[in-house]
What does this fold into?
Amino acid sequence: MTPDDDSTAASRAPFDIDATYLLVADDGTMSTVDKTGPPPRIDGLTLGVHHLHSDSAHDGELHTDGDELIIVLAGRAAVELVDADEGTHRTDVAAGQGCIVPQGHWHRLLIDEPSTILHVTPGPAFDIRWAQPSGSSEPGA
It folds into this structure.
């Protein structure tokens, strides 16, 4: 690779972490993708920064390919973790602190005050439980 190579120039270009996900492939190569929806699920790690004002919109998510790292950059939040043997646990996480969500555990974020969160999420396997409206017994009803 020469210093004038397009990929080298692109890798030196700054990117907006608020508008971009950073993808780290299993082989260690990195790339970026614009945030146009949920984080991409790749063989490797997806890093993203989010500004949150309310709790997770779902009842939990699960990552079976590895642990997830959640760091609170600003604000105050909690990770609600469901353990099959011990029930639900809340771990409070303040600005400057992180929390490791063990592989294979259902979890969700609870936002105590507006927060900026950095996540490092393994993939591609992923599952989610969407909240059901009151009185409904069918998903999406």
About this structure: The mean pLDDT is 87. The chain is about 5% helix and 55% strand. The two ends are 54 Å apart (CA to CA).
